[in-house]
Amino acid sequence: MWGRRAPDGPTQQFHSGDGSQVICVEPNRRHTATLYRRAGEHPGVRISAFHVSSAENLREVESGSVDAVVSTVVLCSVSDPDQCMREIVRVLKPGGKWFFMEHVKAPREFYVVRVVQTVLNLAWPYLYDGCHLSRSPQKHIRKAGFASVVIDEFEAYELMQTRLAHGIRLVRSHISGTATK
Predict the structure, then answer these.
(1) Residues forming beta bridges with residue 2, ordered by sequence position
(2) Residue closest to 93 by CA, chosen among 3, 174, 166, 154
(3) Pairing with 10, which of 35, 65, 116, 155 sits 20 to 30 Å away (CA)?
(4) Which domains does the chain carry?
(5) Are 91 and 61 contacting, i.e. CB atoms less than 8 angstroms apart?
(6) What is the pLDDT at residue 104?
(7) Nearest to 29 by CA among 58, 54, 66, 2
């Protein structure tokens, strides 16, 4: 989801309250109804555009036009993470921020989970809308050309209930952070 502030709003900080405008980008048209239903729960936020498109191809979003990009679990399913990063940098205004949360490949100390993720990743993207279990997007984020990047790594046991034999959770390692153009 891509955020852009109303023209009469402040220019130094993203404001998500009344008067905010949101540009939504989603490759799966089936999510349209949910998006508009959820937006209706926040009457001060206006969806100014909805593009059925991949995150690697944002040609309908003007360069340097958004104050903030907000994405959750996007980099696991894009076909080209580096192109996705180029598009995020392109659409952000100078000083604009990208707020993200992604699931990532398990750390080395969880070697059993890493092996299972790697093996299952052969079929997983076909079953789960292109999602890859074994990606490590941190390197793509750090080399994308942002002025600053802050990434927090954490284990989110409560976020994903998918388990295999012996309680192995496949998607528990996450990152969240902010990158500033």
Answers:
(1) 23, 69
(2) 3
(3) 35
(4) 2-180 (3.40.50.150)
(5) yes
(6) 94
(7) 54
